[in-house]
Design goal:
Blueprint: E1 3-7, E2 10-12, E3 18-25, E4 34-39, E5 45-51, E6 58-60, E7 68-73, E8 78-83, E9 92-101, E10 104-108, E11 112-116
Parallel strand pairs: 2-11
Antiparallel strand pairs: 1-3, 3-8, 4-5, 4-9, 5-6, 7-8, 9-10, 9-11
Length: about 120
């Protein structure tokens, strides 16, 4: 059974940092690209970042580029998202997702809440 379990969310002040983790199990983690996707209150899903299976290629949504860093540890079957210089508009539930193709996902985690507020 495929499982993706996110952790690391919380309440942080503007300008602060958080590191999200996503523990994967039930599939060969090291042969799939992975993404982070978020959903802000009252809005639709927004892709945030993606990383290829080896970790050598990454991509970011324009508003987070330079502030967020995606990474993975294939030995630990874990995906990460380091978020720095957080802004109130980053407030959302963050999900990790297993990519089925370059533009679609087949498994999601339960999400972790990130709230940026003073």
């Amino acid at each position: 059974e495929v499982q993706l379990v996110e952790s690391g969310g919380g309440l942080v002040q503007p300008g602060g940092s958080l590191r999200l983790s996503c523990a994967a199990s039930g599939f060969y983690f090291n042969i799939y690209a992975m993404s982070w996707v978020r959903q802000a209150p009252g809005k639709g899903l927004e892709w945030v970042s993606a990383i290829n299976k080896g970790g050598g290629t990454t991509d970011y949504e324009a508003s987070v580029k330079g502030r967020f860093t995606i990474s993975r540890d294939n030995a630990k079957n874990t995906l990460y998202l380091q978020m720095n210089s957080l802004k109130p508009e980053d407030t959302a539930v963050y999900y990790c997702a297993k990519q089925r193709t370059s533009v679609s996902y087949d498994y999601w985690g339960q999400g972790t809440q990130v709230t940026v507020s003073s």
